[in-house]
């Protein structure tokens, strides 16, 4: 099979076309071209990164969900119509990509310790939304939670108001404006106050909020405490805030916790550093696994997420890949 690049400004019309095109382009630009011109693939990658910055579509946002944990997790999303029905399994090192329309408003969290049968019925130790794999209801606290409202100006945050079960961060990509990283990359479970800790087999698996444990107005920001002037940080919320300065630690923790960005895509990472983009440069592998029957697709190596956001839009703008089957 031979890959021929021809000048064209026409983008692939389907997501499947984009996936195949990306795979073929990567092979050409990161394997054949560096060898032909004596370039280091990493130098070429950095050069293309600087030049890139366009988006696949201005009418939708690309969400990439990464599991960097050392255990399988079951991400949940509500509303989940654009996210594989609202729930799925994600093994360590796997990532998955979805598209959400402007106007979507929802939440994303991770579930742990789940057991589902072939019908998608089961239970989870943390973050459960009932007895189903695909969530249509909110998760049971405690659970780390990412919240989004997509509009002309996007709003997003990571909230620990209902407790903590997994390190979680939201990184905007290719957006305009403030576009800060939100989240909690620290693992609060080993340092959770004993009175807030949830344990399984002697191990802390999540950390409850003070509101959930004590059910008092000063912790829940309700009653006479139901406004930002009266409801102030507490001993427990300060523990969360010190460990996770860009996540909500209590209901009125807005100034340092709610983020905005325009026309951005988003990477939601579980159990990874906030500098996740730099790790993509060191985990490349010539493998791309996609399913033509699915709107979403699995990326088995984080490197390809980096390529999708930075390299793919640039190359697609200048080249249309044509595949010609060579006759024997």
Automatic annotation (TrEMBL):
Family matches, as CDD domains: TLP-PA
UniProt entry keywords in alphabetical sequence: Disulfide bond
Record flagged with keyword Ribonucleoprotein: no
Any matching Pfam family: Thaumatin
Gene3D superfamilies, alphabetized: Thaumatin (2.60.110.10)
Keyword Disulfide bond applies: yes
Positions of disulphide bridges: 69-271, 114-124, 129-135, 179-261, 184-244, 192-207, 211-220, 221-231
InterPro entries in the cross-refs: Osmotin/thaumatin-like_sf (IPR037176), Thaumatin (IPR001938)
SMART domains recorded: THN
Family per record: Belongs to the thaumatin family.
PANTHER family documented for this protein: OS03G0233200 PROTEIN
Record protein name field: Pathogenesis-related thaumatin superfamily protein
